[in-house]
Design goal:
With 175 residues, the protein is of the alpha/beta class. It has seven helices and five strands, in the order αβαβαβαβααβα. The protein has two domains: 61 residues, no CATH class; 93 residues, no CATH class. 39% of the residues lie in helices and 15% in strands. The protein has a three-stranded parallel sheet. A two-stranded parallel ribbon has the order 1-2. Strand 3, helix 4 and strand 4 form a beta-alpha-beta unit. It is globular, with a radius of gyration of 18 Å.
Length: 175
């Protein structure tokens, strides 16, 4: 699984004494789900076992609107896996009163999912100067490059369905 490769590569870099890493901490944001302590412990143990981690997993609860770039920098996050990217993006960047703090070395990994089909269809109907259309995912990555790194991945990478066959076919993730 790509997350297993990514997390274990980061741990390896941290263990090797890479000066960019102060340590590796795996946090899973359970927002918007309220879990009991017992369920949190069980969930964290299952995630650690399924990712074959030698370090613990900490469950946290942060609303999307609180996860601003200032918050990301303060928590020293370098990678975020965001399943609901569109909702997080709208909550954080939708109504900015001042420019966001830039953290381009932080990378958000998100599935290639369209946030609102109606909006995309409306954009596709507009006339553009050339016939070639840019991918909305590429356009988002380019537009946000100075603020925060974004990498959109195939939806299949976020699913456990067909995981065994994908693991056999997958190549190491180079970030």
């Amino acid at each position: 699984m790509f997350l297993n490769q990514l997390i274990n590569n980061l741990i390896r870099d941290g263990v090797k004494g890479n000066p960019q890493f102060e340590g590796v901490d795996v946090q899973i944001n359970t927002y918007p789900y309220q879990l009991t302590k017992e369920l949190e412990d069980e969930f964290a143990a299952c995630i650690a076992a399924s990712l074959r981690l030698d370090i613990g997993v900490k469950l946290v609860y942060h609303s999307y609107k609180d996860m601003t770039t200032d918050f990301i920098v303060a928590n020293k996050w370098t990678f975020m896996v965001m399943y609901n990217f569109a909702q997080w993006f709208k909550s954080v960047f939708g109504n900015l009163s001042s420019p966001p703090r830039c953290t381009p070395r932080t990378v958000v990994l998100a599935p290639m999912l369209v946030g609102c089909v109606k909006d995309v269809l409306g954009e596709l109907e507009k006339e553009i100067p050339c016939k070639a259309r840019a991918s909305p995912f590429d356009a988002m990555q380019i537009a946000m490059a100075d603020v925060i790194g974004i990498r959109f991945l195939p939806v299949a990478d976020f699913s456990l369905v067909g995981l065994t066959s994908r693991e056999e076919e997958s190549k190491p993730l180079n970030m």
